[in-house]
Amino acid sequence: MRIGRLVDGRCVIDTGDGFWRSAAEGVTVESVVAGGHAETVGKPVDDPVFTAPYRPGTIIGVGLNFLDTVAQMGWEQPSAPYLFPKLSSSVIGDGDAIVLDDSLTARLDWEVELAVVIGRTTKNVSASEALKHVFGYTGANDVSARDVQAEDGQWLRGKGMDTYCPLGPVVVNADVIPDPQAVRLQTWVNGQQWQNGTTADMVFTVAELVAYCSAHFTLEPGDVILTGTPAGCGDFAVPRRGLRQGDVVETQVAGIGRLRNPVRAI
C-alpha cells in the first residue's frame, strides 16, 4: 500500500493495484499510519501531484550511520547511534523550495535518507521485535548547514531550519519494503549524480535504531526516524560543493519515489 497527500489537500491511496484513489471522508495519512482503515472512493486520480505526506510530531535524525560516509569524513565509527532532532517546521514536500539564507549559512548540503515511519506506541522494544512497530517508510533529504553544525558543536540549528526536511513523495507500508537493509539511495544535483548507496552499508540497522530510540524516548504513531546517508555529500567533496540559488536537488529512495526540490535564495 502507498499513501500520499495531494497539493489540493486530498489524501490518496494505492492499495496495491497501481492506481491512486481518493481516501474516504475523514481518512488521512496520519490516521492510516496509526492503524485506521485505508478506505478509498471513486475512480483513479489522473496525474496526482503530491506534497509532503504529513508533518510528523517528532523527527529523529541519525548521524554517521553509513560506513562509507564515516570513511569519507575521516571520523571514527560511532559505538552507539548519534541522534539529533529535526524540527517539524522543517518539513516540505516534493516540488517545494529549499530556502538558502546566505546570512545564516554558506555551506548548505544534501543527504538522501530512508525515513522510518512508526506505526504504534513504542517503548523499550528489542531489535528483534522492532520492525513490528514500523508502519512503513518514506524518503527524506536531511538538508544540512555544515558551517552552522561546526559552529554550534551540536546539530539543532544546522539541521532544523525551515525547509531543511523534504519528505515523501509518499509513504509506503512495510510490505512494499520487506527488507529495509536492501534499499538504494540516490541524489542528483542539476542532473549530476552525487550519491548512490544502499542501506546495506548502515552501521546500525533500522531495527537497531528503532530499539535504541525506544530505550530513550517513547515513539508514537507517525513519528519519523531518519536513518543516515551514504557517501557523496557535497561538503565532503574535493573541491567542496554547496547548494546554490537555482540548483535542483533530486533524492530518490527505491520503492518510494523521488523528491525534486529547487533551491531558492533569500
From TrEMBL:
Keywords: Hydrolase, Metal-binding
Domain called Fumarylacetoacetase-like C-terminal: residue spans: 58-264
InterPro entries membership: Fumarylacetoacetase-like_C, Fumarylacetoacetase_C_sf
Protein name: Fumarylacetoacetate hydrolase family protein
Keyword Metal-binding assigned: yes
Entry-linked SUPFAM superfamilies: FAH (SSF56529)
UniProt source species: Prauserella salsuginis
The keyword Transferase belongs to this UniProt entry's keyword annotation: no
GO MF, any single term: hydrolase activity
Matching PANTHER family: ACYLPYRUVASE
